[in-house]
Amino acid sequence: MGEHGGAIKIKLRTPAVEGKANAALCSFLAEELKIAQRAIVLIRGRKSRDKLIRIEGLSEEEARRSLLGTPEKKSTAFW
After folding, report:
1. pTM (2 decimals)?
2. Which class is domain 2-78?
3. Which position among 8, 18, 26, 68 has the lowest Cβ density within 10 Å, counted as fewest Cβ atoms?
């Protein structure tokens, strides 16, 4: 996991078949952020490597700090 051009880049080993990679991403984020999986909403990118995720109940800054350890405010796109 790391930053790439303002986005957070996350590598998963789950195959992108029938939404399994998207489900794995949401599960991973929920676990890392210690929030319910239902609070993670895939806004854009269901069939793309580039995703836009909304995390309900956390600001972008809080999510970035939890995932990357940085408080910088940048785009909300996740990979």
Report:
1. 0.79
2. alpha beta
3. 18
